[in-house]
């Protein structure tokens, strides 16, 4: 291992090679038992460094706590830091082989010579900002897992630092690592009361400087179409092709409210899966919007498209299901804006330019905020999550570790709500 890597980067490399991919078609929690491998490792490391009340529960969550060392009578809000252990099912997380690019020259990086896979500056121009620093990339065959093992490593190193520096004053610091965030279930069985924090941050964002307290309102949509398979030689007036009905259903949704055309606060309908045959077809969607009113309209439009299909092809031709996933945390964070103010101030102390952006997705923090734990999101330093082009800057991870330390130290002076 390189002598130039920070403690945070070294931790990240240890965690990255453990396959923790979650599965969206499993009911148990964690959805994959292999997530427990990392969970057990983290629990043991927390105990070894001296973290208190470490536990790994039956659902795969890992919790720990560093007690306040403030003088008697002094108080600060109990502060939590949360990251998730699983990686996305969208791309392989098995047999991850991280590559270390020291003193990066600002040019294209060949990830895999045999398959001619390149990390291209033309495609990802933000790479240029890391010239002269150390990048950690994939080998082109798997994802890297910086989402969110970088966050895990940053929190672990922050905890280690405080325990090695008992002279540094801080309030109660609560730590949690969750399973199954990538399949939308990371907060399902989170023990908010047992966690013990008044407020928290998820460390699950992207490029250094990102600070987020707005996210999509989210729902899943599914339509099952029932056709009628008739021999094509005698199908006139009789056949109902469920595949074509599925294509027609998609055509009823706004063309430009599609992820490939949207950015910022703009919402979308995303067709995520389509399969079937003439007799039956099924389409699965995710529905997103930052604005709650527009979000509700999108769900109604989705249902109306199904009603139109039933009117045209007969009742029961289209079965439409819509299920809410999570909501925009903004309204739950706004009464606790000191969380954003303190994070911004800590960034500025480290010469990090805060970039407050809406999350075009969700985090455990969005749902936890609605469970009574206000929880905005902090950057990890990573880029291009969920695929072979994922990379992270080692120096960014080190800086973000320092950011977490600064935030915790600043909370000594925070009175909370």
Query: Major β-sheet, in short?
Result: 8 strands, mixed
Overall pLDDT confidence:
95
Q: N-to-C SSE series?
A: HHEEEEEEEHEHEEEHEEHEHHEHEEEH
β-sheet strand percentage: 15-25%
Beginning-to-end CA distance, first to last residue: 46 Å
Low-pLDDT windows of residues = none
Overall SS class = alpha+beta
Question: Which overall shape is indicated by the principal axes computed on the Cα atoms?
Answer: globular
Spatially, the strands of the biggest sheet line up as 1-2-8-3-9-16-10-15
Individual helix count? 10
Share of helical residues: 25-40%
Please provide the count of β strands: 18
Report on this structure.
Helix 1 crosses helix 3, helix 3 packs across helix 10 (394-410) and helix 8 crosses helix 10 (394-410). A hairpin with a 3-residue loop joins strand 12 (268-276) and strand 13 (280-289). With 417 residues, the chain is an alpha+beta fold. The chain has helices at 7-16, 35-49, 146-164, 192-195, 242-251, 292-313, 330-333, 338-349, 364-370, 394-410, and strands spanning 52-56, 62-66, 79-84, 99-101, 109-112, 117-119, 135-137, 173-178, 199-203, 210-212, 217-226, 268-276, 280-289, 318-326, 355-356, 377-378, 382-383, 391-393. The chain has ten helices and 18 strands.
What's this, in brief?
This protein is α+β, with helices and mostly antiparallel strands.
